[in-house]
Design goal:
Layout lengths: L1 H40 L2 H7 L1 E4 L6 H9 L5 E3 L4 H10 L10 E4 L12 H7 L2 H17 L4 E2 L23 H16 L10 E7 L18 H8 L1 H8 L4 E4 L3 E2 L2 E2 L4 H11 L5 E3 L7 H5 L5 H11 L4 E2 L3 H11 L5 H17 L28 H10 L2 E5 L10 E6 L6 H4 L15 H9 L3 E6 L8 H7 L13 H13 L3 E7 L18 H12 L4 E6 L7 H6 L2 E4 L7 H9 L65 E3 L3 E2 L3 E2 L4 E10 L5 E11 L10 E10 L4 E9 L5 E2 L5 E2 L3 E8 L5 E8 L1
Parallel strand pairs: 1-2, 1-10, 2-3, 3-4, 4-5, 5-6, 6-9, 12-13, 12-14, 14-15, 15-16, 19-27
Antiparallel strand pairs: 7-8, 11-16, 17-20, 18-20, 20-23, 21-22, 21-26, 24-25, 26-27
Bound molecules: beta-D-glucopyranose.
Beta-D-glucopyranose binds next to loops.
Subcellular location: Periplasm
Catalytic activity: Hydrolysis of terminal, non-reducing beta-D-glucosyl residues with release of beta-D-glucose
Enzyme class: hydrolase
């Protein structure tokens, strides 16, 4: 009987499977037929128009764009963020000959109406569920505003804290960034892109923008293919594998060829090697910038290079609109290339469900929110929960934290009450006036149990260069007209009345943004003076850091009793920080980027090669790879972060000392919470290929697990190690594993590890 049922099940399975595959093939056929028929009907001008991606603004006033849309001269729009505005533009399509719907895109990078922590903060959580949740909520909020697409995630691996856009990425590690890329692409896109609550992910910036030389934005990248594929490409590949619908090119040049004209990147790697079948958009103005790069003499050459290289859509500079027709007529851009680019735009719209319903996300007037900024549209509870998971406790001498909710607390610093700064950069749709500052968060948490005093203490900086930069476009950080001495005197007087001083210091949000490159990694001068004056009061000093990059904190580490890296934590930042300061949440974040001691050590990253003369602590003399004028190594290593409890990791238990090429081994540790508070930590797995055909990194992250433990509780954590984790790109760029001895390390940061060895046979 059982056998008969089993046979029946098998048969049913066989019958069902082909049906499902057939359905998918049918859907693909329908899509192909639809696009083929549409392409047939299109004139060359109409095809060219589909490649135009523009933003309403001074260069493209609304009235001009409306006229253009009626003539079918626009493919997609970005930076229009409300349902009425989106509907108004989409309505104009009805006047055009073929009525091809527009899509609407925006930079939804760490939240939309609700700001979550900046990406570097999200990465610090090492919490894929929380990061995915932030992405899903972003998609819900953005699609509710009529948006179809986000220019996110930015998954440029970077080892450059000087680079302002380090804040927008997920740090220095390819494995961690790749896992986050997968999670965010799936969170944005949901189960189906045709769902009104899904938005398409445009991952960026392809490729290697984060390797920009010297951390100077838009600068050159020159790199070996091995390093590129091993350390920088995995997140982009992961985004493709996760089904991302689109990609944005990089403004920077790679080995002399800018991303937007780089056919090796866009055709050979992205489409041929990785099988990407979505849309490629240029970055803002990137086509015409090919002239400044010095690879194109004029707009026509820039256009020819970009489209022939595989950049389908042209963002905002209208080079394609003006140049493509003549290039096509003269045969410099073949019909096949134009058709392929246009097809990619049409497929994108098809996948987004816009041909069936151009108003799928913009909806109807009757469903519009009465107030698009209404409180009820925010996701405050999730924002608070995710923000507190993203904070990293850097120091906590004598358990000065958590604080008591009684007595007198002085909350001081230019960032203590700044709603503009706490939400972070690229958060245009989130309103600063809905953000909770640290002062407010702490005051609410204390209630009437204690007293909170406040002084600004200093401006963000006394340096006119910095002051000018952060207020260049709009006054985001108004200058206090008082003298630095007056401000410090006031702060010190207030600090003297307090039991504990909490100083909220760091960077203005605009300092860690596009083009926000810094030559210094220090907290700006004015705030350094403030910290020194606060330290001199002798009161316990807690620094809460708001910033968008690793800073050089050697001096502050000496001055402060405790330091909490809170990044730019978003709309609910102040509540989340208060939760951590008072112990309502036990901090669990870990650094996704190395913190150097001084800017002179940069680039400083954990997964470096060994060199022939590595530093040896027992011999600080000559002839090792080291700076003689600074203590060796980072201030805080990759993966580092403290808790209010202590965790202990057992030695590694390996299921076998040998691994065959088809097999797997298990590496297990027991993690115990040794303290008296519940807490979470991140158990990290690293590998090193000890001897290979080319030099390999001293350690590479290959797995991690975030676990929660009650006081005294212990848990076994098991990592499965198979051959894929041992593979690397050899000199011939084959991705393969070589037999030999591997070191395996498991611990709570990249330095504090247990280790063992096994052999790949
Ligand atoms: C940035 C992109 C962004 C685009 C559109 C550019 O300046 O480099 O990351 O998506 O603007 O806002």
């Amino acid at each position: 009987m059982i056998k008969t049922l089993w046979m029946f099940g098998l048969l049913a399975g066989l019958l069902v499977q082909p049906t499902f595959a057939d359905e998918r093939a049918d859907a693909q056929d329908r899509q192909d037929r639809f696009i083929d028929e549409l392409l047939e009907k299109m004139t060359v001008d109409e095809k060219i128009s589909q490649l135009r991606l523009v933003s309403v603004g001074p260069e493209h006033p609304k009235e001009t764009l409306i006229a253009d849309i009626r003539q079918g001269k626009v493919g997609g729009i970005f930076n229009t963020v409300t349902r009425p505005d989106i509907r108004l533009l989409q309505d104009q399509v009805k006047e055009s000959r073929l009525k091809i719907p527009l899509f609407f895109a925006y930079d939804v990078t760490h939240g939309h109406r609700t700001a979550f922590p900046i990406s570097l903060g999200l990465a610090s959580s090492w919490d894929l569920e929380a990061i995915g949740r932030s992405g899903r909520i972003s998609a819900l909020e953005a699609s509710a505003d009529g948006l179809d697409m986000t220019f996110s995630p930015m998954i440029d691996v970077t080892r450059e804290p000087r680079w302002g856009r380090a804040s927008e990425g997920f740090g220095e590690d390819p494995y961690l960034t790749a896992r986050i890329a997968e999670v965010l692409v799936k969170a944005y896109q949901g189960d189906s892109l045709r769902d009104p609550h899904s938005i398409m992910a445009v991952f960026k910036h392809f490729a290697l923008y984060g390797a920009t030389e010297g951390g100077r934005d838009y600068n050159t990248v020159d790199m070996s293919a091995q390093r590129m594929f091993q350390d920088y490409m995995p997140p982009y590949k992961a985004a493709v594998d996760a089904g991302a619908g689109a990609v944005m090119t990089s403004l920077s040049a790679l080995n002399g060829m800018p991303g937007t004209a780089n056919s090796w990147l866009l055709r050979d790697v992205l489409r041929q090697q990785w099988g990407f079948d979505g849309l490629v958009v240029s970055d803002h103005g990137a086509v015409l910038e090919l002239m400044r790069h010095g690879v194109a003499a004029d707009p026509a050459a820039a256009t020819q290079m970009s489209i022939n290289a595989g950049t389908d859509m042209n963002m905002n500079d209208d080079a394609y609109l003006h140049e493509l027709k003549a290039l096509f007529d003269s045969g410099k851009v073949p019909m096949a290339v134009l058709d392929a680019a246009c097809r990619n735009v049409l497929v994108t719209k098809y996948r987004l469900g816009l041909f069936d319903d151009p108003y799928l996300r913009a909806g109807v007037v009757a469903d519009d929110p009465a107030d698009r900024n209404a409180e009820s549209r925010l996701h405050r509870a999730d924002a608070r929960d995710i923000a507190r998971r993203s904070m990293v406790l850097l120091k906590n001498a004598d358990s000065v934290l958590p604080l008591k909710k009684s007595g007198t607390l002085a909350v001081i610093g230019p960032l203590a009450d700044s709603q503009n700064d706490i939400i972070g950069s690229w958060s245009a749709a989130s309103l600063p006036n809905q953000a909770v500052t640290v002062l407010r968060g702490v005051t609410e948490a204390m209630g009437d149990r204690g007293r909170v005093l406040h002084a600004k203490g200093s401006n963000l900086s006394n340096d006119p260069l910095i002051q000018q930069f952060i207020n260049a476009y709009e006054v985001v950080s108004p200058l206090d007209p008082r003298s630095p001495e007056q401000m410090i005197d006031e702060a010190v007087a207030i600090a003297r009345q307090a039991d504990v001083v909490v100083a909220v210091v760091g960077e203005a949000r605009g300092m860690a943004d596009e083009s926000g490159s810094r030559a210094s990694l220090q907290i700006p001068d004015a705030q350094q003076a403030l910290i020194a004056a606060l330290e001199a009061t002798g009161k316990p000093l807690v620094l809460v850091l708001l910033n968008g990059r690793p800073l050089a904190l050697g001096k502050e580490h000496e001055q402060a009793d405790a330091m909490l890296e809170a990044w730019f934590p978003g709309t609910e930042g102040g509540h989340a920080i208060a939760d951590v300061l008072f112990g309502d949440y036990n901090p669990s974040g870990k650094l996704p980027m190395t913190f150097p001691r001084t800017v002179g050590q940069v680039p400083l990253y954990y997964n470096h090669l060994n060199s022939g003369r590595p530093f040896r602590p027992e011999n600080r003399g000559k002839y090792t790879s080291n700076y003689f004028d600074v203590e060796h190594g980072p201030m805080y290593p990759f993966g580092y972060g403290l808790s209010y409890t202590d965790f202990e990791v057992s030695p590694i238990r390996l299921s076998s000392k040998t691994l065959s090429s088809g097999g797997r081994i298990e590496a297990q540790v027991t993690v115990r919470n040794m303290g008296s508070r519940a807490g979470e930590t991140v158990v990290q797995l690293y590998l090193q290929d000890k001897v290979a055909s080319i030099s390999r990194s001293v350690q590479e992250l290959k797995g991690f697990r975030k676990i929660a433990l009650q006081p005294g509780e212990s848990r076994d954590v098991t990592f499965d190690v198979g051959i894929d984790a041992l593979k690397f790109f050899n000199a011939a760029l084959d991705f393969q594993a070589e037999p030999g001895v591997f070191k395996i390390m498991v611990g709570l940061d990249s330095v504090d590890v247990r280790s063992d060895e096994f052999t790949l046979e």
